[in-house]
User: Fold these one by one.
Assistant:
Number 1:
Amino acid sequence: MSTGTTVTTTPSSTFGAGVECFVCGAANAVSALQCRECSASLALVHDAKAQEREPKVVSIVGESNVGKTVYLGFLLDMLSQRAGDFEAIPKGAYSIDLQQVVISHMARRQFPPKTPMEADRWYWAYYQILQKATNKWVDLVMPDMAGESLAAEVATPKTFRVINSLLSKSAGTILLVDAAMAANGSAHPDFFALKMISYIDAMHRAKRDERITTPTAIVLCKADHCPECFDHPRRFVQANLNRLWNLTESRFANVEFFACSVVGSLGYAASETDGYVTPVPLHTALRGVLEPFQWIIEQV
Ligand SMILES: Nc1nc2c(ncn2[C@@H]2O[C@H](COP(=O)(O)OP(=O)(O)O)[C@@H](O)[C@H]2O)c(=O)[nH]1
Ligand SMILES: [Mg+2]
Ligand SMILES: [Zn+2]
């Protein structure tokens, strides 16, 4: 029985004179808008070439459900509203999608739906950003990765090659950590962050006595549950995420700690049919969204 799907393969020679994806290195047709392998925006390659500068990639990593999608959506929205004297130019409608999904859900008092696991369905946001005070332009490529793909890659490196090449090409990394969980005494966020950091460390294959210089912002998410994070993020990490703290101290030369929250107050709603409880963001109140990004921009 026929399945009804036809698979068309394109000979690689077709792409001989094409463009090479910045993230995964795959050859693509000149006219393509997105990489056929990893879905990264190819406008990045074209624009970077035209402006004769290397694109600067900032990646956002963290466990599934830590708040990556929400964080990235609000960050992009703040940038496009010129927060912090930044000017942001989205490249392609696709880049605006993520922002729109987050903003429109939150306006309806819902958290956005989960990010799909396959790389070709991640949202790749590409913005050109100008910091007006310093007249510094950066190309920001920020994929909204599924936490499960990250976890799979960290557990078995090279499962998702795109993650590996993305992280190794990143000029800066924002690592999100679930502060609410850590404050509740769970060791889980500490271990996940530890794995992530040791993965990045191994990837750089730096000499034993050389520390990694890539700016790394560690962001304590959902800090509305533990507001003390805002006063002393560093102290919070040292006390509640001590394994992470120790590894970053010994291996990372350029690391900073931040706290972040996007909701003012939460309600909880239980489904009438199955009793499943979902958090309802009653109103949006952004705290600490721009700061980690601003710090990264100062470093790169
Ligand atoms: N209290 C609180 N919860 C948050 C915040 N940001 C995200 N969440 C919760 O975390 C869940 C997962 O967020 P999401 O961005 O989809 O996580 P991702 O899997 O890392 O992309 C949301 O559905 C919310 O329940 C925050 O700032 N405060
Ligand atoms: Mg997500
Ligand atoms: Zn690619």
Number 2:
Amino acid sequence: MTIAITAIVQWIHIAAGLIWIGSNIYQDYVIWPALLTRPAAEARATYESTAKFAAPLMMIAGMVVMLMGIIRGTFLGPIKSFGYLVTTPYGITWLVALFVMIFITAWGGRFRSGLDAAVWNGDQFHPTAMQTIRSHTLVSNIAFAVILACMVLMRFGL
Ligand code: HEM
């Protein structure tokens, strides 16, 4: 029974992770580069109409990943005490994944709330719009790589 529940939780965790990382990558490598080739007013209107759908999807997927990851590591995994969390390789790796996930979620929120000042300048692109988007993409990609590395390590009990 526990194996079935663990498998279901892990399935939901992985599916939500795919949606969360996939939509971030699509936004960073497809949507933004396409928008930057369009006139700024049109790009802004398009961004705002896609964000209306993308933001809730990414937020819900991110929450589900985190929640299922917490359940998978604690109730359905080996982390049963604070001691285990901070003294074993598995506990530390899990903690790193959780912190990086929280950090990148907050970072994404900060990026989106600062878009007005950082990317748009009225009906023009801000002169540093491209750099702002590139640095956001770089930080997100590093975070995804670290989180995925943590998932692989935990698979081997590390
Ligand atoms: C977008 C982010 C994430 C993705 C794409 C992801 C993906 C995965 C994948 C594919 C596995 C299966 C690994 C395997 O069995 O080989 C896994 C397992 C797991 N994940 Fe995540 N994960 C993410 C974030 C997190 C976070 C933030 C946490 C911690 C809160 C977490 C906790 C776990 C745990 C505990 C396991 C089980 C590891 C084990 O004991 O085998 N994950 N995850």
